[in-house]
Amino acid sequence: MSSNNVASFNEARRVAIFGGTHGNEMSGVTLVNLWMMNSREEIQRKGVETQPFITNPKAVEKCSRYVDTDLNRAFTTENLSAPNGKDLPYEVQRAQEINRLFGPKGSSEAYDVIFDLHNTTSNMGCTLILESSKDHFNLQMMNYIKKAIAPDSCPVLLNEDPGLKYATARSVAKHSVGLEVGPQPQGVLRSNIFEAMRIILKHALDFIELFNEGVEFPPCTVDVFKVSERMDYPRDANGNIIAMVHPNLQDCDWEPLTPGDPMFQTFDGKTIPYEGAGAVYPTFINEAAYYEKQQAFVTTRRETLAANAIRKV
Amino acid sequence: MATRGSQRRCGTWISEDLGGARAYDNKEDIPIQFDWKQQQGWGNGRLRELRGWDPDCFRGHRETWEFQGWDLDCFRGNGRLRELRGWDPDCFRCYGEPGELRGSDCFRGHGELWEFQGLDPDCFRGNGGHGGQAEACSGEDEMDHLGFKPLSRVAVCGGTHGNEMSGVYLLKELQVSQPERVRSFSLSTLLVNPRAVDACRRYTEKDMNRCFTDALLSAPTTATTPYEVTRAQEVNGQLGPKGSEKAVDLICDLHNTTANMGLCIITHVSDWLGLHLFKYLQEKITSAPVRLILLKSPFSEVYSLESVGKHGFTLEVGPQPQGVLRADIYNLMREGVNRALEWVESFNSGTVFEGGEVEAYIDVDTKDYPRDPKTQELTAAIHPQLQDNDFCLLKPGDPAFVSLSGETICYEGEALYPFFVNEGAYYEQNTAFKLAQRETLLLPAVSVKKPQ
């Protein structure tokens, strides 16, 4: 850090773009495969080595989210330091390999930036996922992207609560950025979703190039949605789901949910309302992969984060 | 004496009889001059192009691949005879659905014959789908009103594909609500592929909804037989056996699609009861579009679950991602099932369902994605102008795909109606979308046959 509240960072020389962390999220798989097979001009920037990479090839081949265990939850300290061997679940082996190639996590040799490309069945638009409110480099990048795509919007989801965040593949890098674009069914490639993801990445890489050239980005603020609580489906004594996301809540990611608003609908048509203390902003509403994680949606609260000016060292 | 033709799936007919009867694959094969021999004529593919008939024995056929053979005396043909205009004064031979098969000497029929079961040496009899029985013909007017036996056993099936969630949950709801209802029929529910449901995958080893062909249902099973093949045989034992008198009267198989298709009734066999049930649903359900899709296969090759029942249909609702349960889609499917059961109740109680027209989408073609010839990976996605526009007429020159580098690829073919546009499960079946012709079908009135 330097004086005058300008945060200094090394040039971001090594950047990775991960696709197929979940093998059935097709935009990232398609984009990364495209760049691995064909010319990479689209993702090259001066002074930056951009590496596209398929993180979970077996899951991609099966077109399933994972083979043994969710790769995007596998980068725990315990997993990364476990003695490696063939008995380990496939994704834990992959996590160790990815940590070797792009990390080690927490060290100075780790990649500067990793973008991890995801799709969701939720109506989240183009969401950027932030894992730390104090990463000024990332905050400035997200501010840059938001301005570049205006009047279109890209919400920023902040997930830093230790009880709620998880050990993602991208967490191996010094600066981790999640791109979550939806709605798109698993196993399906929608061209509008694909193009939207591509455009966000383009702006992100432009930002890195400008930063590396020495541009100083002045202080800014970034509106974020901070993850507050996970809401499960109502279940019976045997753990079976007894209600669905209510039609009034379905597809209403990022819109306020106030106490009394319909939240779930039982199979015979009764409404279960939201009963919280105040208005919240739900997201990841009805994500297919989260049924097994006991999550119908998450609630978030709006916050404004301040980012210092940044420039390269 | 006559050469028996061989049945071909498609392609040019290769044989002809000594008398000169010929069958052709398509218009281009028709010789310049028809050669009307003394007692013979022939058809030329589509019945609607048939120009005449032999006074002794009508011959017409639709697709040559459905043509089974013929002899000099008696017409044998199969396929659709939709626009039949007249009949042979001695013995009209034409046939449609089992319920229309009338008499030993003279019968009338119309519509489709999907399955040719046998023949009588004097006069051709086709008998449509299984379970059809000839009835005495008592007059011309009978064709306007058909009687069917009551539907006393109905089965609603879900989880044929384990990640199509509406059916899985609707079955549970039916099991809870069913005992409260008194009905004129027995209602059973069946979770078809429990292993796939547990794994929340379409299937574990083989697509369950391709396992109900006659061949697979009777195949001996070993330790290496895919789970779904064995399970299909079990299901056939419970709901069938397919083709026998013991089969349930009606199967409703619940499915979801990622395509924007609203509510569709899909059936392989055009069956007057099924068409009337569709007509009823279309009249009663106003919250979403309700459409009829007819798939064509020769009956012996029909592979899907609903063919196990005497009557059957698939209830397909979308769009919904795999593994997701949307309340709006669930509610629509629930309404569809409730209305279908309502119709059965009404039918059994003696209601006469008046004849009328219905619009059907007849499956005729399939288009795959553009792919890299070496890797078979997709090189284009469905174009935004086609995405979510199922059942909007697709004309030559309309955008169909957009390449990964942004170029539009246009559709080149007949103007047809696309459906199953961007269905997630069809990537591995080399299908980006299917195409249908739209036709108007004329339904006779139907009602339950009173016991004699």
UniProtKB/TrEMBL annotation, chain A:
Catalytic residues in the record: 180
Stretches of the chain forming a coiled coil according to its record: none
One annotated GO molecular function: metal ion binding
Keyword Plastid included in the entry's annotation: no
One Pfam family, short name: AstE_AspA_cat
Positions bound to N-acetyl-L-aspartate: 65, 180, 290
GO cellular component labels: cytosol; nucleus
Entry note: cofactor: Binds 1 zinc ion per subunit.
The EC number(s) this enzyme carries: 3.5.1.15
UniProt key word Metal-binding: yes
The entry's keywords: Cytoplasm, Hydrolase, Metal-binding, Nucleus, Zinc
InterPro entries in UniProt: AspA/AstE_fam, Aspartoacylase, AstE_AspA_cat, Aste_AspA_hybrid_dom
Ranges for domain Succinylglutamate desuccinylase/Aspartoacylase catalytic: 12-208
Gene3D superfamilies documented for this protein: 2.20.25.160, Zn peptidases
Protein name in UniProt: Aspartoacylase
Organism annotation: Gadus morhua
